[in-house]
Amino acid sequence: MTPRAQKIASASLIVGVFVFWELFCLAAGISELILPRPSRIIEAFLQYAPAIAPHAWQTLYTTLVGFFFGVLIGLSLGVLIGSSKLAYDTAYPLLVGISSIPKVAVVPIFVLWFGAGTVPAILTAMIICIFPIVVNVSTGIATVEPELEDVMRSLKASKLEILWNVGLPRSLPYFFAALKVAITLSFVGSVIAETVASNKGVGNMMLIASSQFNVPLVFSGLMVLAVMGISLYAIFAFLERRMTGWATRKNIA
Amino acid sequence: MSGQEFVKLEGVGVTYGEGVNKTQALCPTDLSIAQGDFVALVGPSGCGKSTILKLVSELLKPSEGNIFFGGRELGAKPVRVGMAFQSASLLQWMTVRDNVMLPLKIVPPFKADFRTKRDGEFKDRVDALLEQVGLIDFADKSPWQLSGGMMQRANLCRALVHDPDLLLLDEPFGALDQFTREELWQTMQDLWLNRKSTVLLVTHDLREAAYLANRVCVMSARPGRIIDNRQVSFARPRAIDVTFEQPFIQMVQDLRQLIVHAPAGPKADAA
Q1: How confident is the model at residue A208 (pLDDT cuts 50, 70, 90)?
Q2: In chain B, which end has fewer C-beta atoms inside a 10 angstrom radius, N or C?
Q3: Number of structural domains, chain B?
Q4: Does the ipTM surpass 0.90?
């Protein structure tokens, strides 16, 4: 299949799913309280848009702030751990251990410490995205070819020069791959924290809407989350292609 | 070709591990290389050829013995070294030109002027080198767009661009096919004849050693030691055809016999 045909096929599938959903609900006469039709969801979205907007901004805000600090911490830890074989071997089991804890389980602890609201959401978004970045960046740096390192060392390059010229650029594809995963995870973290303990944010809004049986609004919230999640992912996927095209051997003349 | 003595190893040996696990990688070895000489080290795999290279480039510290550069002990005065390995290990995110330029960013005195000269003097310097090895048309390409032989040419350029006092080659042509390898031998010979740098080449290819070097040192199996040391006196520049003539073939056969029948190092039968 040509790339163009591929794109058309993907787009048709997406449209097709929504059309099927709409028709299926109509034909089977499914109650709006169970599964509203896409057209009803969009209608609800337009109707409630002014009310949804502050919640959406809140979610985007906690996600991005948490993500920013998560990347900062993850990148620093990753560079630190990756640059030393000893640190890498020592810290790796702990990292794997921590990263296998479901991060949402720490939300109650954050609420206990900082109270409900914005802070737990930011912290959850942050902590959930640190580990994929640490693991990827440190792996990228730690797996520099030994020959290359020998060439650099024989030139009497300092550790910092090797890191700057070889380690860091080499770990960029790993870093950007991690960013794509991390932004999605951050988003999940924010929404969960909002759902559990906040009076603002899309997660909270959905919770309240569902308690009022305003199902189309619940689904509108879901739609907003989907659009935001996909957009954030797309932005980082685009950045990845631009920055590390050399790794996939594309986009370079 | 007996210039001033440049590199000298005196009773240099390497042992790894302690106690029962102690393994001798290199028996105490003497080796001296004259300024501007081209020396090849040959021997069976694992005999410590690469160990000697790592010792001379200060990547490894000897367990015993001393290494001298121009009469001074290693480390006393910075020696500019260029190295090339079997894997070209070019940086994939840079153009070929930037890859070759990398040492100029790191080695003094070039390092100090890197920012101001990278688009001028240094670029010309790199391009001149690329021109010599026939890569000038590929200067702006990415490494993965090159063939294996071209990557090795770029690798050689990177090892030479900062005018090293000593060029260390660890089987740089080992992974290439026969034709490409012979082409690169010629390129290497031309580069050496132009620059007269001091070269230490480690290889398991006896033809390569005899074709390129002024002197071939033969090493025994592990733990290695140098068991023979012979001059190669074919006239320069050598054409590839030389390698198919009787004296050359005879020489390669002699080297082969030496390696095949070499007794292992002195402590080998005790182990």
Answers
A1: very high
A2: C
A3: 1
A4: no
